[in-house]
Amino acid sequence: MTGPEVPIRLSPPRAPNGPGRELRSRYAPGDVSVFTPEEARRFVPRGDSDPRTDVVLAWELLYRLDPELYDRLATAERLHPAVVDWLPRDVDTIAEVGAGTGRLTMQLIDRGRHIVAVEPARPLRQILRRKLAAAGHGDRVRVVEGFFDRLPLPDDAAGLVVACSAFTPAPGHGGEGGLAEMERVCRPGGTVAIIWPNHLDWLAARGYQYVSFPGPMAVEFGSYAEAVELTEIFYPKAADEVRRRGGRRVPFEVAGINPPRDLAFKIMAA
Ligand SMILES: C[S@@+](CC[C@H](N)C(=O)[O-])C[C@H]1O[C@@H](n2cnc3c(N)ncnc32)[C@H](O)[C@@H]1O
Questions:
Q1: 0.85 exceeded by the pTM?
Q2: Which of 1, 85, 119, 166 has the fewest CB atoms nearer than 10 Å to its CB?
């Protein structure tokens, strides 16, 4: 006699001190030696930050020490399609700041004749170049090093200046200087867009309007095993629930993060 069939759920082994270690305890203070002097000036301005207590710093280390891991997460956290649809089309030049591994960049290709992707983290630039080349767009997008507060572009260079999940009011990640730079680079009548913004009041006080698109959204991991693995690293409080649910899709509310369904924007005076 056999009993009722029970679905077998394969859980990947948990490795609290190995490669699966969660982001908040993944890196040690000495890891900041990976930063270039320009990066250190922005990300560890006092020189004594600890990535175990400063999660923003832990993200910056992730981009440099585990860039492929970061890329797997960004690939799963897809943008709401209406966000990209909303962006202007037929733009001559698009400048994207903090382009990372190209979650947005790859979707900008049909919207602009020239695209400049500014990204400070060298390992992320390498992944982005690799993806562009694989997609046959290596010559359409110029991938360059740069920071919000010193963009390597002239005044009025672009009809769309955009950042996705990168800009914050903190000086090291944008701030007043970074917003002023994005607006300097945007031509009159062009659009500055901050996708998946935080600190909406801060942006509203600087003349930015807000738009958000409805509908259910989930993080789309490649498999259940990947959902468990990456949840344990990036949203550890949700890991038990992800295991209990047993699928590769994790609703953003289960992950405990805002879905990437919104943007703040300003049309520059013509
Ligand atoms: C969460 S990732 C988002 C990457 C990409 N835009 C996406 O949506 O997948 C944040 C990005 O901002 C970049 N970044 C951090 N500080 C920056 C700065 N001061 N200037 C420009 N980019 C910055 C990081 O290197 C990283 O690529």
A1: yes
A2: 1
Q: Best substitution site from 62, 63, 65, 176 to test ligand 1's pocket, by max atoms within 8 Å of Cβ?
A: 63
Q: Is 175 in the pocket of ligand 1 (CB under 6 A)?
A: no
Contact 59, 78 (CB under 8 A): no
Q: How many CA atoms lie within 13 A of 108 on its CB side?
A: 30
Residue 44 in contact with ligand 1 by CB distance below 6 A? no
What is the C-alpha separation between 109 and 114, in angstroms, rounded?
8
What b/e sequence results for 87-126 when a residue is b if at least 16 CB atoms lie within 10 Å of its CB, and e otherwise? Answer: bbeebebbbbbbbbbbbbbbbbbebbeebbbbbbbebbbe
Q: Under a CB-based contact definition with an 8 Å cutoff, are residues 248 and 226 in contact?
A: yes
Q: Is 99 in the pocket of ligand 1 (CB under 6 A)?
A: yes
Whose alpha carbon is nearest atom 22 of ligand 1? 98
Q: Which residues in the chain show pLDDT less than 50?
A: 1-17
Q: What is the DSSP string of 130-192?
A: HHHHHTT-TTTEEEE--BTTB-SS-TT-EEEEEEES--BSSGGGBHHHHHHHHHHHEEEEEEE
What is the end-to-end Cα distance of the chain in Å, rounded?
79
224 C-beta closer than 6 A to ligand 1? no
Please tell me if the CB atom of residue 103 comes closer than 6 angstroms to any atom of ligand 1: yes
Query: Does the Cβ of 80 fall within 6 Å of ligand 1?
Result: no
What residues are paired with 265 via a beta bridge? 193, 209
